[in-house]
Amino acid sequence: MNGEGGQKLYVSTFKMHIKSPSRLGTIESRIPLKCPETESRLKSSEPPVFVRPLEDCCVDEGSDIVVRGVLKGSQPVKVMWLHNGEPAHFGKASFDGKEVKFIVRECLPEDAGAYTCLVENSAGKTSCSAAVCIRDFETKYGGLKFPVSSKSVVENGKSSPTCKDELQKFKGSSVSPDSQSPVSSPREVIPKKRANSATGPVLHFENPPQQLEVKVGQSAKLSCCFRGSAPVASCWIRNKEEVVDGPDLWIENTDQSTTLVIAKAEPQHTGRYTVVLKDRKSSAQHTLTLAVIERPEPPASCPVVSLVSESSLVLSWSGPCYDGGSAILGYVVEVKNQGCAEDWIELTDQCKSTSYRVCSGLQPKHEYCFRVRALNAAGVSEPSPVSPAVRMEQKDHKKPEDAILEYTCVKIDSTHKVTDHYILQEKLGMGKFGLVFKLTHKETGHVCAGKFYKGRRAAEREAARREIELMNHLHHPKLVQCLAAYDHKPEMVMVMEFIPGGELFERIVDDNFEHTELASVRYMQQILEGVAYIHQQKIVHLDLKPENIVCVDTDGHSIKIIDFGLASKIDDKTPLKVLHGTPEFVAPEVINYEPVYLATDMWSVGVICYILLSGESPFQGDSDAETLALVTSAQWEFDEESFSDITEEAKSFISSLLVKVPRRRMSCEEALAHPWIAAFDSGDLTSTKSLSKEKMKRFLARQKWKKAGKAMLALKRMTLLSKSDSCASPTSPGEVSLMSPEAQNALQSLERKMQGPPVFTQKLEDQTVTEGSSAHLSCHLTGYPDPEVVWLRGDEPLEESSGVQIEYDEDGCCTLILTQVGKQDSNVYTCRATNDHGETSCSAKLTVPE
Fold first, then answer.
1. What's the pLDDT score for residue 743?
2. Are 300 and 308 contacting, i.e. CB atoms less than 8 angstroms apart?
């Protein structure tokens, strides 16, 4: 509809559906037929009447729509607004007892159409309608367009007489028995729209794949099947850009599937691919992961030898920096006797962890070197660096309490008490789970630590069982070991390896201990070795902090990681969200109640390293809430004074860990290969200057008075606030609002691709029918936006009536049905289809013989 200055004027086509009195008049239906009081009240009531009806209007897109009218009638009055015959769930309605008003702020083209006010009181009901046009200068809206003469003028938001005439015609197309609006001319015909069945197929994917794994050089076919209403347009997105066909990559589409084909997969093709679908009524998207796998890189470090005896030792190493795109399935351990001419000998190809105990084949006084290969679905890696030669001693000089631990899987003993086998000694500590006591085995005299769980509630018992189960997967020299477990209701006890050295940070502030950056590198390397093994088992610790890093003995530099009470298994298919941790060390994704990853632990490692080198916490606030706020914003910096003697490599190491986005943080393997850590092994790190301990002493003093419960409450409070903010968002839960910006851009592109003029894929055919029978004239129609159709008998448009029915099905089949035809119905019948892109028609002759 063209207005002044080339403006486009659009009005939505609509049908008004006024419910029958039996469905609207719920008040009357509940009143007894013979009730004197009721009859008297009804006689004295005045039915509602519009003394000033709603007025038609034309407004500019982006301005406000205001539809108002004035009522009189007995109170109370119930008011309901409809837009194009459907309840108006948008806009703001008001009624002050006299004036009814409906306001739509900053209107859009789709807000055009008919606005109807339904009014009801105890004495009766009425309605009134007004038509609203919206002038749009750029976009087209898929509604009915009316030609307007060149003399039409629109000024100050009000239509000229010509524009009002068009509005009157549009509004008159809705017929309501109770409406006070004028009725349209009998010559005017409403175009028929395609039916949208509520039970029709909603566009959706059918069992789409979540991931695909192929080897380098193989062909990759990412295929998704779907169901929807034709036509369906699709596109693929990778790295925020739409995938386009090329010689090595192309898209194959059918009516029910779309496939992205990569002729020869390379590692750079690894990543997430999103397919976006669009049909006439809705849209859908699905994301799947392609892994192009190759042989992994070699393990990042040479095997470290520990716990050497006459004929056995323990090897531990770091996993590869790159796993080849596929999970590491295990390791191949090889040995070479330095005193023989033999080549490398394979000890095992079934090692499932980054630690292995060699307990056979080694001879006293012989020297051996070791190396390791990583194994994934694509094959075996090149060997790791070779370990230094180790000489098997004639006798074991280790102290009894340092005897080699036998790694065994612990089963919970439900028939005995812990005191049946151990002597209970002094208390070592306490936590939210319960108490820790020192234990001595009655037969061997071996000293252990007993973690006594409260266990009175089912949830506490389940948490204890879960921790014990996880400990069975954590057999590594840098991790505390579980030796036994007891379940004697209500008491549950986990017997742990006793580590007498105390907390690492307590050791560092001791006046007899020298604290240097070189020593800090060694501590961090051991922490990373332990964390690497944890992550190798797909377990995330979730409570890494200085209190959980302890020294193996009172005079050495070996450490172990303890306390796996908050640890959890990571499942790639089911995101894990948690709400626990210590504010200063917890990662932003935990506070925001977002999925956690293995990288969540790496944030905590970065905080530990920052404190280890400076004695200060990077996120310490005046309160727990302030600390959590600093963590979520990832606001931190290197204090110039505290880091004046720290190398740039160390700062780079920390900076690569304290990154807000988890996927951008260094992995554990990458951290072990970082130049700062690597400098320790190579001997390139020469900084031996003693670091100040005063700030670390203050840090430890502050930690002692902190209450774990207080920190947990602050963490929960921050998360609940975050949740309430997200719940208050006005964004509707529709699918499009959940799509990424690139997916929404793809939808717009698909919308443009689907556009096209109407086309008859099946045309009308001439028919001869006998008088008094029914005639069915059918054709099939495509086009987008959905074409609207008008049927003509000769040159005259047909209206639906008792003898004329028009069906326009969801699949595009359009049928004219004439019941009980007579001789006067012999004529040429035409189906004319129109949409924004054009018009077409097809005709057939109907003959009714005499």
1. 83
2. no
528: phi then psi, degrees, rounded to nearest 5? -65, -35
Contact between 14 and 143 (Cβ < 8 Å): no
Q: Which two tokens stand for residue 569?
A: 């298994």
Q: What is the mean pLDDT of residues 739-762?
A: 86
d(CA 479, CA 561): 5
Residue 200: predicted pLDDT: 59
Contact 107, 117 (CB under 8 A): no
The greatest distance separating any two alpha carbons of the chain, rounded to the nearest whole angstrom, comes to 122
Taking residue 69's Cβ as centre, other Cβ atoms within 10 Å add up to 20
Helices (H), 615-647: 624-633
Average pLDDT value for residue range 237-252: 91
Task: Centre a 10 Å sphere on the Cβ of residue 238 and count the other Cβ atoms it contains.
Answer: 16
**DSSP at 190:** P
Q: Can you tell me the distance from the alpha carbon of 540 to that of 563, in angstroms, rounded to the nearest whole number? A: 12
What DSSP designation does 668 have?
A: H
Looking at 136, 323, 543, 624, which residue is catalytic? 543
Two structure tokens written together for 671: 């951290």
Residue 543: active-site member: yes
More confident residue, 694 or 607: 607
pLDDT (tens digit, 9 = 90+) per residue, 412-466?
Answer: 999 999 999 999 988 887 776 788 899 999 988 889 999 998 777 788 888 888 9
Can you tell me whether residue 213 is helix, strand or coil?
Answer: strand
Looking at the predicted structure, is the pLDDT value of residue 701 above 70?
Answer: no
* Per-residue pLDDT band at 688 (split at 50, 70, 90): low
Please check whether residue 372 is in contact with residue 334, taking contact to mean a CB–CB distance below 8 angstroms.
yes
Q: For residue 76, say if its preceding peptide bond is cis, omega within 30 degrees of 0.
A: yes
- The SS3 assignment for 651 reads helix
The pLDDT-based confidence of 405 (bands split at 50, 70, 90) is: low
Question: Is the pTM higher than 0.70?
Answer: no
| The two three-digit tokens of residue 325, written as one number | 């795109």
What is the DSSP code string of 120-133? Answer: EETTEEEEEEEEEE
Residue whose C-alpha is closest to residue 418's, from 468, 493, 318: 493
Question: What is the torsion angle, in degrees rounded to the nearest 10, for the CA atoms of residue 59, residue 63, residue 65 and residue 68?
Answer: -100
Domains plus CATH for the chain? 4-172 (2.60.40.10), 204-293 (2.60.40.10), 304-402 (2.60.40.10), 412-497 (3.30.200.20), 504-727 (1.10.510.10), 756-847 (2.60.40.10)
| 446 touches 440 (CB < 8 A) | yes
Beta carbons of 383 and 301 less than 8 angstroms apart:
no
> Which residues are registered as beta bridge partners of 781?
760
**Cα(451)–Cα(251) distance, rounded to whole angstroms?**
59
What's the CA dihedral at 747, 753, 756, 762 to 10 degrees? -100
Interatomic CA distance for residues 508 and 692, integer angstroms:
10
What is the DSSP secondary structure assignment for residue 518, as one 8-state letter? H
Q: What residue has token string 């006797």?
A: 337
Q: How far apart are CA 47 and CA 708, in angstroms?
A: 68
Mean pLDDT (the chain) is: 80
What tokens appear for 633 in the block? Answer: 């914003």
Distance of CA 467 to the CA centre of its chain: 28
**How many other C-beta atoms are found inside a 10 Å radius of the C-beta of residue 140?**
13
Q: What backbone phi and psi angles, to 5 degrees, belong to 670?
A: -65, -35
User: What totals of helices (H) and strands (E) does the chain contain, helices first?
Assistant: 17, 48
Question: Does the pLDDT of residue 499 top 70, yes or no?
Answer: yes
88-129 pLDDT, tens digit each: 888 899 998 889 999 998 888 888 888 999 998 888 888 888
